[in-house]
Design goal:
By secondary structure, the protein is mainly alpha-helical. The chain is 47% helix and 0% strand.
Length: 197
Amino acid sequence: MIAFPANIKSILTPRLVMVVGLLMLSTLATSACAVQESNTYPVETFSEMHYAQSHRMQEPPRLAPPADSVVFVSTGDASQVLNVPDRRERTYNPEVAGDLYRINCSVCHGVTGLGDGKATRHITSGSSFYATTQGTTYATPPNLVESAATRMTERDAIVGFVTNGAIVMPSFGKLLPEEDIRDIVNYIFDDTSGLSH
């Protein structure tokens, strides 16, 4: 074993402690500045801490508006500008209306509107949700041709019925725009190329 004189040992011990301490401190300082979070980029603590809405140095420069641009000015008063029509209709096309009916209605009411759609046996089943919660089975979906001819002859009444839904019928006002609903109702009443022919 090497024997050091007492005076060298007393000089090296404080210096060694100081050097090791400085190395540890510098390692800690450099590793703390480059902490990688769980995301892709390291967090830049300094720039994040000093960001404020009034100091937009981190945002890209904004483009100037075109030279010939003008401020938007509304024409007319609120009663003219915000006037929403009571009814939204379009020109009736039996092919479009027929497709809308087949996609949205025929599964319950049947392709010919007689209330014999493919879902009828599930709707009228004793184990359906309606039957288990109400204690009785639901009647078959209505015959739309018969209803349009005798019971519900007002088109606006049927539009409201389709829009708001009924017991097991969904509210189509949340699914279709008003003009689609009106096309379906017109298709039900159409006696040349619709359901009522």
